[in-house]
Fold:
Amino acid sequence: MKVFIVNCGSSSIKYQLVDMETENVLAKGLVERIGLPGAVLTHTPVGRDKVVTEAEIPDHSTGISMVLNALTDAEHGVISSLRDIDAVGHRVAHGGERFTDSVLITADVVKGIEACVEMAPLHNPAALLGIKACKSLIEHAPQVAVFDTAFHQTMPKQAYLYGLPYELYEKYGVRRYGFHGTSHKYVAQRAAEMMGKHMTDLRIVTCHLGNGASVTAIKNGKSIDTSMGFTPLAGLVMGTRSGEIDPAIIPFLMVKENMTIQEVDDYLNKKSGVLGISGLSSDFRDLEEAASKGDERSQLAIDIFAYRVKKFIGSYVAAMGGVDAIVFTAGLGENSAFMREKICNGLEFLGTRIDEAKNNVRGKETEISADGSKVKLFMIPTNEEIVIARDTKAICAPLVPAK
Ligand code: AMP
Structure:
């Protein structure tokens, strides 16, 4: 079975075509700047050179159509006909309370995703455009939605409700949903496998540290708490997002800086985080370099970020009554030995001991704790695509005619 994985952003489409017999990626790529000048498709048939095509790409449907042409192209393609695509798996940001697992997309499921648009106004509409485009261009292929929120639907009420009037939850679904669920689930499963245990017997803290960042407490295989909330603005200090702040700062800002609510929203989402603190960059590579040359605010941004992650780890260990493993993943978690060490320093009271030499690793899943460390530490590159592909295969296998 060949599964086409689609991840639509507001102006981008990431994709992969995976052969599920081997789980090998046949081709992958990215459409960028949809609806903007300078739109471009970068298509990579795995093992061959990438092909960059600049074109006018006014909408997602045109983008998907270009991707499908690239996949079947005589020169750069990896399949001879669209009929070779057996199923499509879509990453969908928000599934609200309705979607607790991946599902086959039907007209009713589309309505359910539409109902969550209000809570993910940038992301869910893009996913819906991708679903619509695939439905019309590869009609024969069943489609599956894999939700970023689904894994966290196991959180108990005490973790997901805010200290707000209960009617807000009943009327509008105002509660913690959490995001990056597919990533947290994947790395926790891998950590359990690397320990030779079942996830259901473990307490794991997973740290997804990328431009967007979140920490999750996974007890006996279930997410019981996570740092992102009603939206992905909550929790950790991130690249450009503030994370947790005193909500009273919002009206204060509106008065003092004469900002509209939209301007405050922009400020907290796009101009805050380590970018706002450092005044330099949202990218930790820039911050680490500037800090090493003595830039104090870059150092401060790094310190605040690591401190916040450490506090979340500590609180989740308390919530689970202990911890067996801590996992680092995503751009920063996978690539920065410095940040992993900084976060782990001071956590020895939990029974963790990082091994400096083992921690000096990139690109390959590795146990980074010292021999004899009671709590295991791992760096595990995330692979949300493979989770989407596996869920899609599992759901669609009975629907796909044998070839
Ligand atoms: P992601 O959102 O998972 O793609 O992560 C992107 C972020 O990872 C970038 O903005 C950087 O802050 C961080 N990152 C990637 N590579 C490195 C690196 N070698 N050292 C430090 N940070 C990195």
Q: What stands out?
A: The radius of gyration is 22 Å. The chain has a mean pLDDT of 96. Residues 210-211, 239, 283-285, 288, 330-332, 335-336 surround adenosine monophosphate (CB under 6 Å). Residues 197-384 form a domain with the Nucleotidyltransferase; domain 5 fold (CATH 3.30.420.40).
